[in-house]
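A reminder from the course coordinator: this example appears on the midterm review sheet, so study it carefully.

Given structure:
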């Protein structure tokens, strides 16, 4: 379970991450392979963002993401030799006619896409409040795939976001937080794009 570490003096929330997406290598010489352990650790670190948002309304969002991380990690632990990269993990699981971790990764990528779009919109639109950024991101990523039972739970979270000024105050040094966020988002968005393209392939599409 991820937890919120103390922000160091002069630092930001990004300095507290056990693993950043910036530090997850993407092997362009091997089909943009992404190492499973590094990626899952970075995704787990990301979930502390929902603690930073400061509302229990985000607990289901965080738990959903952690649940999908667990599905992928369970497969990795069960078959480590076939799971060094996310792509090999999915392809080897599908060969067994199972798709638990492949489905977990699909939902994890959707959750990461949602988070990255919300934060990118926040960075690019200084006058927009977080609720607008998160609501727009939810509409474009997770909402089309959610059931009528789940949509109200996530919609409640979108409306429970703090004011942007309070969010940045929790992030640490605002100028540094914005710079760190830009680099972190560049890495996260690149990995999400790689995985979305992989998941759209004929042999991996669920």
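Designed residues:
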């Amino acid at each position: 379970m991820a937890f919120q570490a103390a922000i160091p003096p002069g630092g930001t929330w990004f300095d507290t991450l056990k693993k950043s997406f910036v530090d997850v290598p993407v092997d362009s010489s091997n089909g943009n392979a992404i190492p499973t352990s590094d990626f899952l650790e970075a995704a787990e670190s990301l979930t502390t963002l929902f603690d930073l948002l400061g509302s229990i309304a985000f607990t289901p969002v965080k738990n959903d993401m952690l649940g999908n991380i667990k599905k992928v990690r369970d497969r990795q632990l069960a078959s480590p030799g076939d799971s060094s990269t996310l792509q090999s993990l999915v392809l080897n699981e599908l060969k067994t006619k199972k798709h638990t971790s492949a489905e977990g990764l699909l939902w994890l990528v959707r959750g990461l896409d949602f988070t990255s779009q919300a934060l990118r919109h926040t960075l690019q639109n200084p006058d927009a409040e977080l609720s607008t950024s998160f609501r727009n991101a939810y509409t474009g990523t997770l909402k089309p795939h959610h059931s009528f039972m789940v949509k109200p739970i996530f919609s409640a979270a979108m409306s429970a976001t703090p004011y942007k000024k309070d969010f940045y105050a929790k992030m640490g040094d605002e100028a540094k937080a914005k710079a760190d966020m830009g680099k972190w988002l560049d890495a996260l968005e690149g990995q999400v794009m790689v995985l979305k393209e992989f998941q759209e392939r004929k042999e991996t599409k669920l």
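Residues 11 and 172 are 6 Å apart (CA to CA). The first helix runs from residue 36 to 46.
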